[in-house]
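Researcher: Predict the fold of protein-glutamine gamma-glutamyltransferase.
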Amino acid sequence: FLALKIANVNWQSKLNKAAHHTSDYSSTEAILRRGQAFNITLKLQTTVQSGDNFTFIASTGPSPAESQQTKAIFNLSEEGASGWSATQEPSEPDCMNFTIFSPANAVIGRYKLKLQIVSGNKVSSTLLGQFVLLFNPWCPNDDVYMANEKERQEYVLNDSGIIFQGLEKYIQQEAWNYGQFEEDILDISLAILDRSLNHRQDPAVDVSNRNNPIYVTRVISAMVNSNDEKGVVEGKWNGKYCSGTNPLQWSGSVTILRKWYRGRYKPVRYGQCWVFAGVMCTVLRSLGIPTRVITNFNSAHDRNINLSIDKYIDISGKTLHLTEDSVWNFHVWNESWFIRRDLGSFYDGWQVLDATPQERSKGIYQCGPASTRAIKEGDVNLDYDSSFVFAAVNADYVTWLHYSKKRKERIYSDTRKIGKFISTKAVGTNFRVDVTANYKYPEAGSLKERQVYKKALKLLGVRSTGKRTKITRPRRRSAVARRQNMTQPAQKPSISGKLILDASPVIGQDILLTLVLRNLISDFKTIKVKLSASAILYTRKPKAEILQLSRSIKLGSEEVKEISFKISYSQYKNSLMGDRKILVTALCETKQGASLLVEKDIVLQDPFLSIKVLGPTVVHKAVNVQVTFTNPLSEMVTDCVLRAEGSGLLKEQLRINVARMAPMESSTVQFEIIPYKSGTRQLQVDLVCIHFSDIKGFVMLDVAPAQ
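Model: Structure tokens for protein-glutamine gamma-glutamyltransferase follow.
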């Protein structure tokens, strides 16, 4: 008996990768998508006997089993029970060509492929090699199928993007390097699945569930934060970041994922919401699930999910921490595209996932997938966590003036409507697209919008008595009571007010503000104004007090007065080291009672930074990049670092020390890049300095293929 000897196995890497849209992965391994044929060629040392029977065995996970769909046994030209099949194609005399098909619902992950040959009564078995199988948005039978090619290019294949941040009235673009095809990133994404709690508890069952995007995305949403299972990123929203990296200083996921992997799975410090969402987008795109990053402005974090956010201020206008609820300037999460076999086809499409650790879901810090259709229709009882996301975009905002434990008064504040300008990057460009209509019906207060809100309250068990069915601790009057029977409404005061910025505020300069007060009635009145300014995080949590003033203003009949004041650089410079956000509040009280709260969020603008690429960008050809920036301060600045990164342009993050910059001085730094991938590429530059928060910039480059 001569066992069939195989000289080598050709995995037809180039051909298969092109057909499977996986050419961008920097790995030499065979990377394939499910539900689609691939080819392999065996070069033989011996000849095949006519009666030889060929059987293929594809297996994945630590304990492959046919019953778990983690092992498939299939013969030539007949489809096995597993949905896998193989056919032999014509070939050269000393070769064999095979086409192998995987089913569109196969488990994803790293597989071994074996060939078993039965010749007479002898059996020989050969390992042909390994391959990685991914989700396939190009395959109509895959749960993640996306019909539009431009959308697939964006949501699966684009390795850079834009994450929107800032304020609803001052939306900023931040560049992010997803880098899902960079070296090791796919391996790291698979390692993330293998480190999950589910995998540790029962590896065989965990792997067998990896055919389902609902399961995979939920596991990743838990693993991207470090809260339960030593996941990738550790969150921090207070204090200093000395023992790690300030979340504002990351520009992409690659550095973070490699740091976690190379550091033996020690959580990377520190992240805030856009970091969690950026990393999750990288991991899910690398596994083949269409994913995008979403920003919700004025996002509610409603701890007890009663659809009401209460804010307390004391008589000087300072925010008090009497509640766990909060409204963030913005919050960033993800959406992934797949069908919902568990809920029914009405709920197919974009699904919300949130890896930021805010609340536990079934005991673990994870969130989603929640169907955007379910959120829009108020179906807050549907899996997973749709009530939490519904509250983030729909809760009510109520302000209370707190005199003492026994006495508080609901005051009038212009309700910043929750859930505004829900944004994502456009397909094929860096423009902002507003997707608010995917989350809620138009016009707050319209009949349809009210019906959905009432349905959600009912499903959540928030009743007019203020009792919650799920929550045992005593509640204040519920949102329904507030909306229906306003026995103690915030009396609309007889004055109106507005805070106006006199000029765009720039770091290093004084901030000039005007409070405009208008008497709405013909009575003469005296108004006590208490102004306060604090440095805040994007979660609107105060970090440090900057300023407190009080003034007494006399207003005649229907008179308008302007009160100007400034926050000088010396007052805010020490509080704005890491972030550049200030919250200014003016509490205006009249003798007649009714109080008015006027608030203004301020984001100091980035000083100027310009990036010039000095020549054409071509694969494997070096080109120089020139970066010019200015020290915005009227003092000497030392120890700055210029960092640059970009997938397809720089294999690792580049760091250049900028020793010193005189006050207001401009500086130019030059460095070289050698692009290694063609197409549209994003180069990001970040000037990091302890004296002021980062100055970031980016430029899009069209890299030509090698000539």
